Amino acid sequence: MRRPTSTTVLEAYGRLKGRVRRTPVLRNEALDELAGAKLYIKCENLQLTGSFKIRGATNRLLQIPKEGRAAGVVAFSSGNHAQGVARAAKLLGMPALIVMPSDAPGVKIDGVRADGADIHLYDRDTESREAIAERIADERGAVLVPSFDDPFIVEGQGSCGAEFAEQIAESGDALDHIICCAGGGGLITGLALGYKASDPSTKIWTAEPEAHDDWRRSLASGEKQVNAPGTRSICDAILTPSPGELTWALGKELLAGGCAVSDDHIRDAMRQAFRHLKLVVEPGGAAALASALHDLPSEAKGKNVGVVFSGGNVDPAQFAGIISG
Amino acid sequence: MRRPTSTTVLEAYGRLKGRVRRTPVLRNEALDELAGAKLYIKCENLQLTGSFKIRGATNRLLQIPKEGRAAGVVAFSSGNHAQGVARAAKLLGMPALIVMPSDAPGVKIDGVRADGADIHLYDRDTESREAIAERIADERGAVLVPSFDDPFIVEGQGSCGAEFAEQIAESGDALDHIICCAGGGGLITGLALGYKASDPSTKIWTAEPEAHDDWRRSLASGEKQVNAPGTRSICDAILTPSPGELTWALGKELLAGGCAVSDDHIRDAMRQAFRHLKLVVEPGGAAALASALHDLPSEAKGKNVGVVFSGGNVDPAQFAGIISG
Hints:
2 copies of one chain form a homodimer. By secondary structure, the first copy, chain A, is an alpha/beta fold. Helices cover about 45% and strands about 15% of the residues of chain A. Chain A has a 6-stranded mixed beta sheet, with helices on both faces. Chains A and B meet through helix 11 and helix 13 of A and helix 11 and helix 13 of B.
């Protein structure tokens, strides 16, 4: 598989300008005090479709030659990638079909539907989403758009890192560390390439739920680790069994290590974002702030720390329960 | 009373740069469809202290000569002005005392306390906050900081309009209309001066709760109108009995007319902001979006419409109830 570099990420950043949103970076003194560090928060929950995923999806779909666009695209995803692909397809005038688990958050299913994509629901416990998606893509002659283990996806997500570096430079400051959630690893590896193009000394750390700390254990051991099957967390967006093939090859060289937090830490971070930032962050999207507040690497204490909010697609009932809890 | 102009608002904008946040302007297609107009949403709920009020407070406090700062400031407010004054005083190293109603939202009282200000609680039904604040200011030799009817306050809030105009110009577009909530009227009259410095043709409309539509009736009749006593709304931040003296003198010349919405419209706007923008907006802060969605002036249909989110300070239990309602 072709290996993304800082250069190809910067190219993707140029390609995506004007197609995706330049999301704000926020500062907050109350959160700084709680974390014991100076936080710069990159708000991809304010991105189009409510998560960073439209960056990679748009970058991937732009590679499909004009004559191949009529057959459209197929993707499988529990939600944010689904919405990213559906919106990117809509903006490029392509049909899209998304294979989603029947227990995906309603807000994510609604988002996909609102962008005009077809939805095929499957049972997470008895069916293989990969097999279903491949069969449908074959039948349609459509392009299957993977959610992370693909160079164009990694480069597209990486545009977030290039943009973050530009914004930090504009502020006149510099980041010693960045904490970013990791599921498959498309965002964090792309972000590391994109950010390090400007500042190679910045250390990048994964954020995960404790029971799904495959990246943390992989980085600590130097070997790709797999999560025990059947573990659960409220972080629906980042529950992948292990780092991807491409993303691990990149991540083991680019990343400094991993943080891990409990679901209670996640809920606390969501409440702090509500209270101090007036932002809605979904559970997986709050893993990096939860890590900054509850599992900050000791070398990051008192330093400038970037924190990525990766998404804000959370069902109202779940959000209501968490903020009033 | 000295009368603010577009020039003095632009001066305040320059004075406040680097002291307050340049808040983002967001676009959202789903909200455009619901409103039947192209909306540009100015997010002052993401301002320091969670509302625009720190703009006016900082501008006012900067007028106090260095030798007068030790005696500090006094203000009365149900919440957002309280937090703006408390934070501005903290940043300028001045003591502050805030007179607040005992039924103010807890999140606002906590915000004031967190910035180190003293709080004097009073009973909204039996005590006069003006009298209490004047007495305390006299005792302390402190400066009483009014919440809207003051040229420096109007000019400070107006920096939001100058900033909005700059951001719209950067986007390469132009606004035909702006809808902004109106309580005392400090924000909307300052915003009108600040925005019209760049584009005098933009029409500015007030947004209010139906039972508190003093601005709408005042603008329609050309005479300052007063709300019936005892009317209630969930929009705690904008429940003033009538336009102010200075703000009415400005508003009757600058404003095009008024919109008014029910509390159910307000709740709907808060839910739409949660769902589509991932933003927390307080009831009064959502009045302009509620107006765009439910009481858009007919001449604004299909046009470019600015919408101001003035604040996001809402108690978690109230917000939870509204988004899951």
